[in-house]
Design goal:
- This protein is α+β, with helices and mostly antiparallel strands.
- The chain is built from 16 helices and eleven strands.
- The chain has three domains: 78 residues, no CATH class; 130 residues; 250 residues, MetI-like (MetI-like fold, Orthogonal Bundle), CATH 1.10.3720.
- Helices cover 60% and strands 11% of the residues.
- The strands form two sheets. Strands 6, 7, 8, 9, 10 and 11 form a six-stranded antiparallel sheet that branches. A five-stranded antiparallel sheet has the order 4-3-2-1-5, covered by helices on one side.
- α9 crosses α10.
- The protein is flat.
Length: 584
């Protein structure tokens, strides 16, 4: 009897045969076997995820710990010299135990090979990192004899990138000695320093507000006088009245400035009564008025919770203060306001114009040759370098439209320009031109995927073309428009070069009370986080001081961009849900 190979005769047998064939193609851990492209594409995706995750992780760690207090170490050298300061960097790669021993304990130089070269920040009196008193020293590994931790070593920032390291030895109120032990001096310093610095800030705020009011008053009277002189033939008496008003305004302004000087003198005398004596490692003694101290810290006395509080306070100061004595001592509040303002102006301008241009190309342009040429032109505009858009914005807005507006509406202020210079409005317009091709292309692609049956159904119900666009096509295209807005915000956040030509500046000056107002005036220059990152990276010599600020500023910019994108994503998801409900 001849045997024949059995074949599946039922649906169950066929299913088991398919499962067995699929199992034969499955390799280790459920990954497909003998499928090289699966492994290749999966590896590429893993590389992308690891690269992006690693970049964000490094930036997050370095940014969050930018203001973490560093311990102060005391180093004794083999030649008898001594240093007190913060360890900034290790030139060599010491062992983890050697670095830990340097920070938390004392150790001898019996094994100098384990210590490694280091970059140390010590006391300095010169704000310039290129001078001989820059405060940055490099110590060879074999020259270090021992290192200890002074529990009451303090760091004193005097502004202008001047930092002192020493031990507090006395605290005076006027000429009366209040405390002569570090354990008693430092609590007094923290309390009194907070009081006198607040008095100084209040006085500075009052000064800035008074000066701003005086400038506005005198500028207004000068404009009135210029307008009266322009109409002098028609009304000669108006010129005399305007001159009298200007003279009276100057007289009142002088009286107000005299009262301001008296109040400032009283505040200065009140804040100068507290002084602290700090002694350095070389025997140098500094007699410091508390009001002149920008910041003081005793990191060796701080535990983990105290370090967290100190770091949070520095973050708050960094985010909520403005111009300081230098870029290193300045906060980024004006830059945050300027970044958000220019981004909002760009979004308000580019989205309506881009959407209308896309609908015109898709719905109203019937000539295929014209449509093809316009699309090629728009896509080519997306590839033009951003600096070219900056030059175009400078030429079109600052040098052409701005002077025309000044001549038409602000003739009284000439020759001082109002809109005939870089400012917030022209920066937003320039970024709108830069991101316009992105919004047009995204919107046109979103309109193209709207089903033709939906259009025909709308026309069959008697709707006109405009009603179909407004009631049918636009709701379908809203998620695509949101995607274009996301891409526009992302590109605008990275475009720093054009802003340098149309109004972005390194630093703006003003009190904390009027910084927000000045940053939101359309004709005023502004700060931008991207430009601030550039200045911290390339325009300062003291990169040891600016590097933590660079990481922190980049982190803030990243958080702002992600937050704006999340808002746009939430709106896009909401529109998609509404669209799905309408389809049901």
């Amino acid at each position: 009897m001849t045997s024949h190979q059995e074949t599946p005769t039922s649906a169950g047998d066929e299913e088991r045969a398919c499962v067995s064939r699929d199992a034969a193609r499955v390799g280790i851990l459920g990954m497909p076997a003998a499928e090289p492209m699966h492994w290749l594409t999966g590896g590429a995706l893993a590389m992308v995820v690891l690269s992006v995750g690693g970049l964000l992780g490094l930036l997050l760690v370095h940014g969050l710990f930018a203001f973490w207090p560093k311990p102060i170490v005391r180093l004794s050298m083999t030649d008898g010299r001594a240093y007190l300061g913060e360890v900034l960097s290790w030139n060599a790669s010491p062992t983890a135990s050697a670095r830990r021993d340097l920070i938390v304990a004392s150790r001898s130089a019996s094994d100098p090979e384990t210590i490694g070269d280091m970059i140390l920040r010590v006391s300095n009196r010169s704000p310039s990192p290129s001078s001989s008193d820059s405060g940055i020293v490099r110590l060879p590994r074999r020259a270090i004899a021992s290192q200890t931790i002074d529990p009451w070593a303090v760091a004193i920032d005097l502004g202008g990138n001047v930092r002192l390291f020493g031990t507090p030895t006395a605290f005076y109120e006027q000429s009366t000695l209040i405390a002569d032990e570090p354990a008693r001096i430092w609590p007094l310093f923290e309390t009194r320093h907070r009081e006198v610095r607040q008095q100084r800030r209040d006085a500075q705020r009052e000064k800035d507000n008074v000066l701003a009011d005086v400038d506005r008053l005198l500028a207004s009277k000068r404009r009135e006088l210029a307008a009266a002189r322009a109409r002098s033939q028609a009304s000669p008496q108006a010129v005399d009245d305007a001159e009298e008003a200007l003279a009276y305004a100057r007289s009142e302004s002088d009286k107000e400035l005299d009262r301001l000087r008296e109040r400032l003198a009283q505040v200065e005398a009140s804040t100068q009564r507290y002084r602290m004596i700090v002694k350095g490692t070389d025997g140098t003694t500094w007699n410091l008025a508390l009001v002149d101290i920008v910041r003081g810290s005793a990191p060796n006395q701080a535990g983990f919770l105290s370090a967290v509080v100190t770091s949070c306070e520095r973050w708050k100061e960094f985010l909520t203060t403005g111009a300081g004595d230098s870029v290193q001592q300045s906060g980024i509040y004006p830059a945050i306001v300027g970044t958000l303002a220019v981004t909002m102006i760009m979004t308000v301008l580019v989205v309506p114009v881009g959407v209308m241009a896309a609908f015109f190309l898709r719905e109203y342009t019937r000539n295929p040759t014209l449509r093809f040429c316009l699309r090629i032109t728009i896509r080519n505009l997306a590839g033009i370098p951003s600096i070219v858009f900056g030059v175009f914005g400078l030429l079109l807005f600052c040098d052409t439209i701005g002077p025309a507006l000044d001549a038409l509406w602000f003739a009284d202020s000439l020759p001082w320009p109002t809109f005939g210079k870089g400012g917030l409005l022209w920066a937003g317009c320039t970024l709108a031109l830069l991101t316009l091709p992105v919004v047009i292309v995204s919107t046109e692609d979103a309109v193209a995927v709207v089903p033709s049956s939906v259009r025909q159904a709308s026309y069959a119900c008697g709707a006109s073309q405009w009603q179909t666009i407004q009631r049918v096509i636009l709701p379908y295209a809203l998620p695509g428009i949101a995607t274009g807005t996301l891409l526009a915000i992302a590109r605008a956040a990275a475009a720093v070069a054009p802003l340098m030509l149309v109004g972005a500046v390194t630093m703006t000056h003003g009190s904390e009370g009027n910084e927000t107002f000045s940053q939101l005036q359309l004709d005023q220059e502004f700060m931008h986080l991207g430009l601030h990152v550039y200045n911290l990276a390339f325009e300062t010599d003291d990169h040891w001081t600016t590097r933590p600020l660079l990481y922190a500023t980049a982190l803030v910019l990243l958080v702002i961009v992600i937050s704006l994108n999340m808002v746009a994503i939430a709106l896009r998801s909401r529109w998609r849900q509404r669209l799905a409900v309408r389809e049901l």
